[in-house]
Amino acid sequence: MLKAFRYKINPTKEQSILLNKHIGACRFVYNLALECKQMAWAGNKVNLSCFALHSQLKDLKTECEWLKEINSQSLQQSITNLDKAYTAFFKGQNSFPKFKKKSNGGSFNIPQNVLLENGKLIIPKFKKGIDIVLHRPIKGEIRQATISKTPTGKYFVSILCETGETIKPKAKIKENTTVGIDLGLKTYIVSSDGQEFDNPNFLRKAQSRLKYVQRKYSKYKGKRTKQRLAILHEKVSNQRKDFLHKTSSELIKNHDSLAIEDLAVSNMVKNHNLAQAISDAGWSTFVTMLEYKAEWYGKNILKIGRFEPSSKLHANCGYINKDLTLSDREWVCPKCGELVSRDVNAAINIKSFALKNILSGTDRKNQDELLTLVKVLTPEAHPIAFGVGG
């Protein structure tokens, strides 16, 4: 099993300069390769492979001699990463690759020759080693490393290791060991067994301070103010990651199966009234954490389609409240007279839908999103329907 271990590194002034050169050179090669691939396709309909671009690095170093200071394998890896991004885009797994910006800090990859000796990180071009803070022991055989720089000027290394651990078999899906999870904004998580996790709203709490520093930076454009702004954003990001890690670990360790809804977050943030709150919640990151931690511990992640009536359907009597709005947090069922908590009811329904899909041997996730012949005839599908029949 492959696992990554992230540590802080403390380079000297000379090492910091060379690290910045590596980050800048890899960003330059990545952007140049991206532009080259775009122009080759637009002009001659040729898709340049990463091997073709690798072979051109020698000529590029002759033209840009400063690239000779950089580890050649790191330059090649930046082109390989671009090729992977292209492949993922054409498979429909990601958006089209974008040009990298210097303001984001940046990173570079070292695919081999990574060593840890006497509290030092030894990589090509850094034979004396870089001081590393090993706050936890590293496990397994080192395969590669990625060094990154934050907008606040801190350096970190992520070391990928082969731990030798076998992937645990998945736990059997049972009703009593399965929990449904409803993600929200007012309450971050409500589970089908009644457990709740409050939304910490880290960005909202830091908003007043962020606005003050942002106004000051917009007026004076000072380096110190820019640094203060970056530090504030980094603090919010670290707080959010810490909360998401602790919450996802608690849920994974206490349940064998977790049922969640397949949310279209990229579409939801188009609502300008909720965009900031949804982005601050970090739902996509949370789901990603659940998925890879479930692989580590042999747990199950069950997803249901985003169009299932999890909130409108009363879990006890089956009544569907078609008039339910987003502001209705509780409603009285006209069929049985019970007071229904929207979030708890949704979590129970998510669990029920997920178990039905598994027990019936079918997965209904995203089936409602597929176009059918009947849907093509509806007014909402006019762009397609107009092309039917020539």
Could you provide a short overview of the structure?
The protein contains 13 helices and 14 strands. By secondary structure, the protein is an alpha+beta fold.
Care to describe what's here?
The chain has 390 residues and is an alpha+beta fold. It folds into 2 domains: 2-162, no CATH class; 178-369, no CATH class. Helix content is 43%, strand content 19%. The protein is built from 13 helices and 14 strands. It has helices spanning 13-44, 50-55, 57-63, 72-90, 202-205, 207-220, 223-254, 265-268, 275-281, 283-297, 342-359, 373-376, 382-385, and strands at residues 2-10, 107-110, 115-117, 120-123, 126-133, 141-149, 155-162, 178-183, 187-191, 196-198, 257-261, 300-304, 330-332, 339-341. The chain has a 7-stranded antiparallel β-sheet with strand order 2-6-7-1-5-4-3. A hairpin with a 2-residue loop joins β3 (115-117) and β4. The termini are far apart. Residues 364-390 have low confidence and may be disordered.
**How many individual helices?**
13
- Tell me the number of structural domains: 2
What is the percentage of strand-forming residues? 15-25%
Head-to-tail CA distance between termini: 53 Å
Q: How many β-strand stretches? A: 14
Mean pLDDT level: 87
List the helices and strands and how they pair.
Layout: E1 2-10, H1 13-44, H2 50-55, H3 57-63, H4 72-90, E2 107-110, E3 115-117, E4 120-123, E5 126-133, E6 141-149, E7 155-162, E8 178-183, E9 187-191, E10 196-198, H5 202-205, H6 207-220, H7 223-254, E11 257-261, H8 265-268, H9 275-281, H10 283-297, E12 300-304, E13 330-332, E14 339-341, H11 342-359, H12 373-376, H13 382-385
Parallel strand pairs: 8-11, 11-12
Antiparallel strand pairs: 1-5, 1-7, 2-6, 3-4, 4-5, 6-7, 8-9, 9-10, 13-14
Helix pairs in contact: 1-4, 6-7, 7-10
